[in-house]
Amino acid sequence: MRLYDFDGMFDAKLSEYISKHTGKYKESEWEDLIPKMYRQFGDTFIKSVGDTPNGFYAKMTDAELVKALSAHLKQGVPVPEFLCNAIESRSAAELLLPLLDAGGSEREYAINLLGSDERAIKKYMEILISPDSDEELKNRCVDFIKEKADLVIDEAVERYENGTEREYMLEIMSRSVIRNERIYDILIKEFRGDADNVPMHASYLAAYGDERALEHLYARIDEEGITFIEYQELKFAIEALGGTYEKERDFSDDPYYNMIQAKQVTAADIFGGFNNKN
Q: 3-state DSSP call for residue 51?
């Protein structure tokens, strides 16, 4: 199979263009211009190829596209965005699934291209519990699993009860659309029993969306001694479930509150990580 380094071709032309137009554009303008130039390059006829980059891949079958992806990765030839776009435009999920077992770059590309495709969710669960998976890989898999959580919800509950990746399983359970008393009880138990991770478990209750959790959230937010971070996430969870909390609280002794007041950090810096779970 003939492979072309389309990105290398583009970079060469880009360098030539930049050198001819030094000082013409500001850095921010280049940031907007370069992606547009790359897209235009996809429809530019290349004599040595006998086609445009997009046209070259359009002529391939689904199987040939996936083989080309593997070949690029194995031979160290940069994978052009045009190839990935061509694969995404097809129904190539069944052909991509075997790459999840390949590991390395092939697995990374397969995950990105498969996304939350239902056929990949169970495989993502296998990767999630594998001792060979690093945290970054696990987080990527969880992000996609959460979009189709009900497909693996029974397994998530079983894994949780067996003590396997419990925090990830809680996160998955919190995204279940089908209501389940066992899941609700687990989320409440963890919220009430884990004093060290109140913000995280409050975010799970907000994501799950069961209004019965409000009484537990109100009880916790009224407690003396909660931190400003806990207060903010509890208040967010209450509002997410349709409640309100207007009681004034004094956090003048809280270091995170004082950091925000001093504008050393923003609220988003501190709380964004929790809210992104939802």
A: strand
